[in-house]
Amino acid sequence: MALLQRFDDETTPPITAEDIRRRWVAFHKQIRLMSGTRFQRTAGRILGEDTWRYHVARFIFRPMLKVLRLRRRRNVAKVTRVVASKAATIFPINYRPLTIDYDHELATINFDDNDVVIFEIDESTASSSDLINTLNDVLNETTSEWLFLADKSLSEESRRYSVAKLLAHVTKVDDVVFGDEPGPNEFAPILKSPTVAPHTLLSYNVVGRPALLRVETLFRVGGFSPDAGWAFEHDVYLKLSEAKARFHHVTIVLAAGRVPSSFDAAHLNGDTCRIVQAAIDRREWHGTVTPGALPGLVRWSLEAPTPSPSIDIIIPTRDRIDLVEQCITSIEEKTTYQNYDIIILDNDSVEPASLEYFNSTKYSVIPCPGPFNYAKIINRGVNHSSADYIVTLNNDTIIVTPDWLEQLIALASLPDVGIVGACLLDREGRREHESIIIAPYPQHLRTDSNYAHVDYFSSATRDVAAVTGAVQMVQREFWQLLGGMDEQLKVVMNDVDICLRAQMEDRYVIYTPDVQLYHHVGASRGDLDPIDDRDRFVKRWDIFNSFRDPYFPESLLLLGEKMFYLLR
Between β-strands 556-559 and 562-565, what pairing exists: parallel, antiparallel or unpaired? Predict the structure, then answer.
């Protein structure tokens, strides 16, 4: 995989404290300019971006701003639900389709038409197998290096322009070169991630169109399967991924994408379920595939390993027995998985009710004395475990999905998976955590606020940069191989950091929306948020500079609570 790099070892040039400070200043300024209110922008200009005046004002007004921000989030969620019901949703908020003068643009681009064979697709035809057989005949006869699939309704100019733009980014190691596409709603384009990750690709066709496919590589996987029906492109991308083909994403929205009729559920769902089931069978996994919430999106669900591996659920707490009892009761009443145990990690609890509970509970209680250090507490808990798998679980969570452990362990037991996370809901049932994205800084993705758009990306079981430590499942031996959480990251970023380090060991991190828990965020930790942790993380992974989230669309930028389109 090797998609990430650390910047805190001897092989990389040092990043100075002053450079880190400048990055923070630039980031906060960008948030205020792009996402802040008129008052925030004005205050920023008056106070400066990194002055004593700014820091004093922030200290004085921060409590009030926190209340206003919470109220704003609630209002944003309400507005989002109204806007999402309209067909003309604009996402990201600053995106507008470009008008292209194809004649002018093509006159300025030099490319060889003989390098590419263009095949017209008519999805209104009665027989997909006839079309695919004809397509394979073209592959057998062509002398071109690349194949380009285009709907017959598209203009010749838009096809040639898309081909030219993709060809300009081709390298000799590429097998598939693909771009972003308008999709059914031209004001909410389908923006794609730089990495075609294998588990996301099972959920939906992340490549789509427009795309150049190397003819030689297509031959190596047997061409297109007539049995795949109208999901024949998705099917071949799955096979190319299995064959370790090289995918190259181009961050341009090109007109030669799929037309609206290509997204019809009746047209696509049955074939997609069948080809994804075949892909799961080829991997010798055991599971089922059912249609998802969107056309061409599927829910693939794997069986938990048998015999059932042991799982230790590790719950840290300092007092707050009201939360602990609520969490454990939900585990006991909801959980259908049998082979689990609970380890409570006591970080200097002093209340009589806490001590009484610890003395009477049937579960192990491990003393974890000293100042709050989440990473150190969790590592101590894992070291006391002998289970096959562990789940880190916040004491302020409540189980919603009865088979949550079956679903998590089915994914965590895959040989190329390191860590698995779930969907967390706030007190009012809004989505609070749907993976962690780094664009440009780690933030929780939330379709009820900062990602105000229900699309394939947000709705899928998918590979991600990170998931929150509030609920993470990992094989215990793999945790130990990683050295556990970094105890220098005492409070924050330790969960993101271990996810990134897992990927450096060629393991994927997976988020599944099918497992849900309530999470009363911050109820236990409070306001602890040391800047030293954040600075160490920024330095280690070169955040705000070279770091790119492999699994989040390259064209998106999250600033505050708003998602922006980054024109490249």
Answer: antiparallel
> How far apart are the C-alpha atoms of 350 and 331, rounded to whole Å?
25
Ramachandran quadrant class, 500 (left: phi over 0; alpha: psi -120 to 50; beta: rest):
alpha
What does the chain come to in residues? 568
Closest CA to 489 of 466, 519, 515, 473: 466
DSSP class of residue 305? P
Please spell the DSSP secondary structure of 189-223, one letter per residue: -B---SS--HHHHHHS-SS-SSEEEEHHHHHHTTS
Q: Are 376 and 346 in contact (CB under 8 A)?
A: no
Q: Which fold has domain 102-301?
A: Spore Coat Polysaccharide Biosynthesis Protein SpsA; Chain A (3.90.550)
Residues 259-287: pLDDT tens digits? 998 999 999 999 999 999 999 999 999 99
Kind and range of the H or E element at 538?
A: helix 531-541
Q: How far apart are CA 533 and CA 491, in angstroms?
A: 7
- The closest alpha carbon to 156, from 184, 118, 204, belongs to 118
Same CATH topology for 102-301 and 311-565: the answer is: yes
The tens digit of pLDDT for each residue in 494-535 reads: 999 999 999 999 999 999 999 999 998 655 555 577 899 999
How do residues 130-147 score in pLDDT, each as one tens digit? 999 999 999 999 999 999
Q: Could you tell me whether strands 340-346 and 311-317 are parallel, antiparallel, or unpaired per DSSP bridges?
A: parallel
Mapped onto helix, strand or coil, the DSSP state of residue 15 is: coil
Per DSSP, helices labelled H in 335-422 are: 352-360, 374-383, 404-412
Measured CA to CA in angstroms, residue 321 lies from 316, 378, 443 at distances of 11, 18, 29
pLDDT digits (tens, 9 = 90+) for 159-207: 999 999 999 999 999 999 999 999 999 899 999 999 999 999 999 999 9
Q: Which one-letter DSSP state was computed for residue 318?
A: S
| Euclidean distance between CA atoms 539 and 8, whole angstroms | 7
Q: Report the distance separating Cα 105 and Cα 157, nearest Å.
A: 10
* pTM beyond 0.85: yes
Q: Which CATH class is domain 311-565?
A: alpha beta
**CA gap 97, 42 in Å, rounded:** 31
Q: Which burial class, exposed, middle or buried, applies to 331 when counting CB atoms under 10 A from its CB (0-12, 13-18, 19+)? A: buried
- What tokens appear for 101 in the block? 């003068």
Q: Where are the domains of the chain?
A: 102-301, 311-565
Calpha distance 265→292 (Å, rounded): 10
Q: Which whole-number Å values give the CA distances from 163 to 116, 152, 245, 387, 404, in the listed order?
A: 8, 15, 20, 53, 45
CA 528 to chain centre: 26
